[in-house]
Design brief:
This protein has helices at 6-11, 13-26, 31-43, 58-72, 106-112, 131-135, 154-169, 180-200, 202-213, 228-240, 251-257, 278-287, 314-320, 322-334; strands at 50-55, 76-81, 94-99, 121-125, 138-141, 219-223, 246-250, 268-272, 291-295, 304-306. It is α/β, with parallel strands linked by helices. The protein has two domains: 3-196, Rossmann fold (3-Layer(aba) Sandwich); 201-334, Glucose-6-phosphate isomerase like protein, domain 1 (Rossmann fold, 3-Layer(aba) Sandwich), CATH 3.40.50.
């Protein structure tokens, strides 16, 4: 890992999103083979395949979002950490999609083994010559370019796009998920514009945002369940890049699992706006004099607010809002004297 190259990788986010948009418009190579696998599995089941998504870290964060969206459309799609021992047995109606940007995650490679002779094992990776491709029967590339830092930033976004294409292609014509495929290129381009706007305006917001979130006790990131991947990925970036403490929470669940710390700690929160439960969480923070930053919406009491084109579209937000946390992580790496706030016991 080369954290000093992280900022260079972030600067290429818009460019690579346009590149994957081009690939999606042209039709991802081998997507027709994905359709064949889906038809074969559906014929052996109840007309639609069962789909298992396997990943670790960022790959799992993205897979969880795609699986939830697919289930909303009536599909049988679940996401699991590859490290679990509680995976379903190989079956004729089960398609397994293994995701690893580097293609070398040991947990993924081991979890793939029971499915390697099924003919229904698909790999998604940014390195199509890696070990994962030698096990899978079919490999789909993420088209994210080389992440010089070794930190999964662009590949996280590209997983959300490419995995949607694969999951949609596994389902028969006429299924609601098939509508995803033509929607993906314009979505990728809109996300490119949103990320470019955040990069262009960074000098306006980076210091107030980074200062408001700096605390020796850590930083909390909240997002609605439909975009919980943003909170998880943002907290990961803060841990991985400057090596600072960070936690992810779903906004509604926050009031059941994290609210307690606002009473005793110097609580700083990065809130990705848009949850029906924003005000419930902010009410507790307000009462206990916590500090927070809002991204993607105007939340009363925020010490800083960051907006960008398309932030009212959850699909664009999934691919864009986390750039704020990524830039904060890079800022803290460059300024190792922060977070420097003194922990204090909160009243209330």
């Amino acid at each position: 890992m080369e954290p000093s190259s992280f900022i260079d990788d972030l600067n290429r986010v818009p460019e690579e999103l346009h590149r994957v948009a081009d690939a999606l418009e042209a039709g991802l190579p081998r997507l027709a083979e994905v359709e064949r696998i889906g038809r074969d599995a559906a014929a052996r089941g109840n007309g639609v395949p069962r789909v298992l998504l396997l990943g670790m870290g960022s790959s799992n964060y993205a897979a969880d979002i795609v699986a939830r969206e697919a289930r909303e459309s009536g599909a049988h799609v679940v996401a699991e950490l590859a490290s679990t021992r509680l995976l379903p047995s190989a079956a004729e109606d089960l398609v397994v999609v293994a995701i690893s940007a580097t293609g070398g995650s040991v947990e993924i490679l081991e979890a793939m083994q029971p499915y390697d002779r099924s003919g229904r094992l698909i790999a998604i990776t940014n390195k199509p010559q890696s070990k994962i491709a030698s096990i899978a029967g079919l490999t789909i590339e993420q088209h994210a370019g080389v992440e010089v830092s070794g930190i999964a930033c662009r590949t996280f976004r590209h997983t959300l796009l490419v995995l949607r294409a694969v999951v949609a292609a596994l389902h028969p014509a006429g299924h609601p998920l098939r509508q995803w495929i033509p929607q993906l290129p314009p979505l990728a381009r809109a996300a490119a514009a949103a990320n470019e706007s955040l990069l262009n305006t960074k000098d306006d917001w980076i210091r107030p945002v980074a200062n408001a979130l700096a605390s020796q006790t850590g930083t909390w990131v909240l997002a609605p369940v439909e975009r919980i991947s943003s909170a998880r990925q943002s907290a990961l970036m803060i841990r991985e890049v400057p090596r600072h403490t960070a936690y992810a929470s779903e906004t509604g669940d926050w009031s059941h699992v994290d609210v307690y710390l606002t009473k005793t700690q110097d609580y700083r929160a990065l809130v990705y706006a848009g949850s029906a439960w924003d005000e419930q969480a902010l009410g507790w923070m307000r009462e206990r004099r916590s500090r927070w930053v809002s991204v993607g919406g105007d939340l009363p009491g925020a010490e800083a607010t960051v907006r960008y084109p398309g932030d009212d579209d959850p699909r664009i937000a999934q691919l864009s809002e986390l750039l704020v946390a990524e830039q904060v992580a890079a800022h803290w790496l460059e300024h190792p004297d922060v977070p420097a706030s003194t922990p204090e016991r909160r009243a209330g």
